[in-house]
Write a structure and sequence with these properties.
This protein is of the alpha/beta class.
Amino acid sequence: MMCEHTSVFRGAVLLALVAGSAAAQEVHNDVLKLDERFQTIDHFTAADAWTLQHLDHWPKDTLEHVADLLFCKDKGIGLSAWRFKIGAGINEEAISDHRRTTETFETAPGEYDFSRQRVPQWFLQAAKERGVDEFHAYVYSPPMRLTKNERTNMHGLDSATTNLKPGAEQCFAEYLADIVEHFHTHPETERRVSFDWISPYNEPQWAWERGQEGNRASNTDMARFIPVLAAELDSRGLPTQVLAPESGDIPSMYELREDATQRWDADYGDYAAFFIEETGLAEALGNTLAYHSYWSDDAIIEHREALARTMEEYPDWRLFQTEYCVMEWDRDLTMDTALRVAQIIHADLTVVNAASWGWWLALSPYDYKDGLLYVEDDEQAATPEDILTPRLLWALGHYSRFVRPGAERVGLEGAKHDIEGVAGSAYHHAGDGRLTLVYFNQLEDSALLTADFPEQAAGLEFTPYVTTDAEGQTHEAQAVVRGIEDFELPARSMVTFVAEEL
C-alpha cells in the first residue's frame, strides 16, 4: 500500500498566524546562513519493541491505520527508518510483564520458525510499502541457550560482567546473521528487508537483573564480540553494519560509568574514546556510535555540550541518538510533553550534531510518557478510533516528515539553544532544493519571528505547518507566506516552514 497524496490546504490568509501582533510577548530575529554546514541527517525512527508482538488479534484496518500514522507523510509523520526487535525467547520466570519478554525465531541451533512475530514482521513490510528504506535490527539479550544463567536477563548474576557464555561469541554471531540473512534473502522477493544496522547491545552499563530482557556488557565484552559479528555478516555478503554501544545515557559516552565499573570490576562507559581509539572497529561500526538521551532532562544543554566537545576530537565519526522517552508516569496527550520532547530533539540535533534521532515505543498501552501512539487496552481488538494520537506524535513529525534523509543542517543564528523560549533549526535538501525551518515556542504567549535570508533565498515562498493544542491543529498546512517577517508563532506551538525549491 502506498501512502495517498493529499493536496496542501492553502486556505485564506490566517491573520492570527501571518500578521504581526501587538500582543506578542517577544520578538525573535534570526539569520539563515546557508554557507554554514553541519551534519547530514540520516533518519528519524521509532521502535517496535514489546507491544506490537501481542496484536495478532487486531483487525487489519487498525494495523493499517497505525502504520499510516507512523510511516506516511500525508496521513502521519513519515518516519524514515524503523527498528525491529530480535527476541531472545519467552522468559516468564524472570520477567513478570508478558510484554517485556519476546519469543525467538530459533527452535534449535541453526533452526528457525519465521512464522513467529507475525505482527512485528507485518510492520516491517508496512514500513517498506510506505516508503521506509532504512531498517535497524536490535537485540537485548542472546538467546537463552547461549546465556550463563539460561535466562534473558541478568537475574542471579551479581558479579558477571555479561551474560553471554564464555566462548559463545561465534555461535551468537551466527544466530544473528542467520536471522538478518533470512530477511535479506527471503524467498518471497517482495518481503525482503535488508537491515542497514544491527545493535547487539542495549544500554550495556545497566544491571538488567529484573523487569525485562537485558544484558549488560563491559567495554571488553563488547570489543570481543563486535568484530566476530562484523566478520560473520561480511562473510555472507550482508550489507548490515554493527551499531554500538546504544549507551543508556549521555555522560557514559565521554566518561566512565563509575558505579558500574566498580560494581563489576571492569570498564563501562567512556564509549567514544574506547571504541574510536582502542578497538580498531571503525569499519565494522561504520564510523558511527549510538547513544540514548535518557537521564539528561535536567542538564539538556550541559551534557550535550560535553559530548559535542568530545566528538570534536573525532571529526570522521558521527552519532545516532537511537532511543528516548520521558521517564514519567501519567501519559500526556497535550503540547506539554510534545514541547518537552522538542527541546530534546532540538538539542540533540543542534548541540550534539546527531545525524539521526529515535523515539522509544511506537505504540504504548501504558499510563506512561513512552508512546508515539497509545491504546487503552491492547488485549482488546482495537478499532482505528481506539488509537490515541498525542501531540507528541506530531512534534516528532515536524522533524521526521519535513527533514528527510540527506538534508544538511545549515546555520540559523539567533534562536539556537533558547530551549526555554523560542528555538529553531534549518535544513537544506540538496537533492530537490527544499529548505526547511523547524521552530518551537515554549512561551505562554505568542512570539513574533523574522528571519533574514541570504540573496539566493530571498523572496522564497514558505508553507507553514502548525501544531498546537487547538482541535485539529496537528500538521495542517497554513496559507503560504513570502519570506518570514513578523510571523506570529502561536503560544505553546511548533511551526515548520517549508520552501519547495531554493
